TrEMBL record:
Full protein name: ACT domain-containing protein
Record-linked SUPFAM superfamilies: ACT-like (SSF55021)
Record domain ACT: where: 45-121
Annotated spans, Disordered: 1-41
Superkingdom to which the source organism belongs: Archaea
Length: 209
């Protein structure tokens, strides 16, 4: 097996070195009673966001193997960090469509942030501003809780803060939302801002031309 990305900053790890698929669960086996043929496994990609701590990668691979995914390659982008300071990891594996859905659900159930799954992409983008005591109210926690909303991912953060924490600061957030779920993402931000007494300046949505 070779890395799909020539010249990558860090070679992809062989899946066999990280985790092994469950016996015989690379795909649904044909029914022994001569039933319909099983769906053909195809290659899928998931892009995950992991905490930079020992064991996190292996823990994230277990839901894939345990649900019948046949791991192909792992691209561990240690040279890059997400806005929350975590490491993006791209995993390729084979699975039937049904098992692929089960794997994605299992990853999310285990608390793994799935930034992209297969052809599922964040198709909408929205930029908003947060004003208030962002540092005192724990900006890292704010970003983590926005990310916990599965409708969106924080693509970029730009913080403008005066010296010290007595004065209010501002943060420009660029969110990538799933198609049709921008309003759900904004609602999550509004609720969090209300809780932390922050002010949100957001773009107009749902306005007819």
């Amino acid at each position: 097996m070779s890395d799909r990305r020539d010249g990558a900053p860090e070679a992809a790890l062989d899946a066999e070195d990280a985790a092994a698929p469950v016996d015989g669960e690379g795909g649904d086996a044909p029914s022994p009673d001569g039933g319909h043929a099983a769906a053909t496994p195809s290659t899928h990609t998931v892009r995950l966001e992991l905490v930079d701590e020992p064991g996190q990668l292996l823990a994230a691979l277990h839901p894939i193997a345990d649900n019948g995914g046949n791991l192909l390659s792992i691209y561990h982008e240690r040279g890059n960090k997400t806005p929350r300071g975590r490491i993006p990891v791209e995993v390729d594996f084979e699975a039937t469509p049904e098992r692929f859905e089960e794997i994605v659900d299992a990853l999310r159930s285990e608390g793994v942030n799935v930034m992209q799954a297969g052809t599922e992409r964040y198709a909408e983008e929205v930029t908003l501003l947060l004003f208030g005591h962002l540092i005192d109210t724990d900006l890292s926690d704010t970003l983590s809780r926005i990310e916990a909303c599965e409708s969106a991912s924080v693509a970029d953060v730009s913080l403008a803060a005066p010296q010290g924490t007595e004065e209010a600061s501002s943060a420009r957030l660029r969110l990538e939302a799933r198609a049709g779920e921008t309003e759900a993402a904004l609602s999550a931000v509004r609720e969090l801002a209300t809780e932390k007494e922050l002010r949100v300046v957001e773009p107009l949505t749902g306005v007819d031309a």
